[in-house]
Amino acid sequence: MRTEHLQFNNLSPEAFEWVQATYTAIDSMNVNDFGRMLAEEAELMFANNPIAHGKTQLLGGIQAFWRTINGLNHHFIKVYEIDHTLILEAMIDYTRKDNQIVTIPCTTVIERNAKHLATHMRIYLDVLPIYQ
Question: What's the sign of the alpha-carbon dihedral 5, 10, 13, 15?
Answer without folding.
Answer: negative
